[in-house]
Design brief:
Strand content: under 5%
CATH superfamily: Leucine-rich Repeat Variant
CATH architecture: Alpha Horseshoe
Largest sheet: none
Number of helices: 8
CATH topology: Leucine-rich Repeat Variant
Distance between the termini: 51 Å
Mean pLDDT: 94
Structural class: mainly alpha
Radius of gyration: 15 Å
Order of helices and strands: HHHHHHHH
Amino acid sequence: MNSQGEYVGKLIAALGHPEPGTRVHAAWVLGELGARVAVDSLLKVVETCRDDPELLAVAVESLGKIGSDAAIHPLMRLSERSLLKARLAAVHVLGQWVDRQEVRDALGRALNDTSALVRAAAAEALAPWQQAAQ
């Protein structure tokens, strides 16, 4: 394994670190690196983390930076059931897949979210598609 691969491996391992700040930083760096090998580990964070909105939001943002289609369904679920910061991040990131009907449907449901921030983010994410459809 080369030094970049070793570094990414250590960052992936750090997603399970007991210190919350370390987990958040690792998730952020993985996104900045565009580390496709980290997608499964970041998805695991998204699917299992329930009590750390910062980690959830950063993992979502990193998945968006990496751009893996494997993130679509987990992010759609997260956009409907999670802490506000994570829902907001999920809606923002889902906007990059607005050309997919299932994503537009999820963003449409987000237009009814209890948070005005999420509703506004969903409207913003849908705007390019609505303009193109006119």
